[in-house]
Design brief:
Blueprint lengths: L10 H13 L18 H21 L4 H29 L7 H11 L1 H4 L2 H11 L5 H26 L4 H25 L1
Helix pairs in contact: 2-3, 2-7, 2-8, 3-4, 3-6, 6-7, 7-8
Amino acid sequence: MLAETARGPDPPEAAKTAIVRERSSNSVLDWRPLVLRTSGSATHGVYGLILATAVITISRELDSSDAGRAALNVLVAALVFWLAHVYARLLGRAVSDDGSWSKGAVVGAMRQHWSLVEVAIPLVLVLALGALGAIPNRAALGVATALALVELAATGAYAAIHHGASRAGALASALIALALGISIVLLKVLIH
C-alpha cells in the first residue's frame, strides 16, 4: 500500500492508486506495469518515464555513442526532478497552511515522489550495459527508449482494462498512451 504522511497524499489519488494496486489479485489484472509496482505515486512514475525517455533522446542526439553518459544524465535528471517535486510539495503545503515541514511530512513527500526515480532505474541499468560494453552503445540507447515507451503503452492498456475496456479498447488506449508519450518526448527535445 502507499506510504503516507500524517496528512498523506491527496485523497482521490491515494484511493485510486490503492484500488488499482489491490484489484490486481482479483481479475485479469494479474500483470501490472512498473509504474504501479513502485513505492510511490503512479502519476510520478509516468512522469519519470517521460522525463527519462526525453533525457535519453536528447543524449542520443548529442552523442549516440555514449550510453554511460546517457545513464548518468537519466539518473541525475531523475534525482534532481524528484528533489524538485518533493520541495514543491512541501513548500506548496506550507504556504497553503495545509502542513508543516515536519520530519514525517518530508519523509512522506520523499516516498510519494520516489517512483519518479524508481522507473528510471531499469533504463539506467540497460544504458549501463552499453557503457560496460556488454551491448553496443547505440543498442543500449535504443532498447532503453523502447523499454520506456513500451511501459507507457502497457500503463495505458492496464488503465483501460482496469476500467472494463475490451481488448480493442485496451489496444487503443495503449496506442494513445504511446503516441502521447512520444509527442511529449519530442516536445521536450524541441524545447531543449
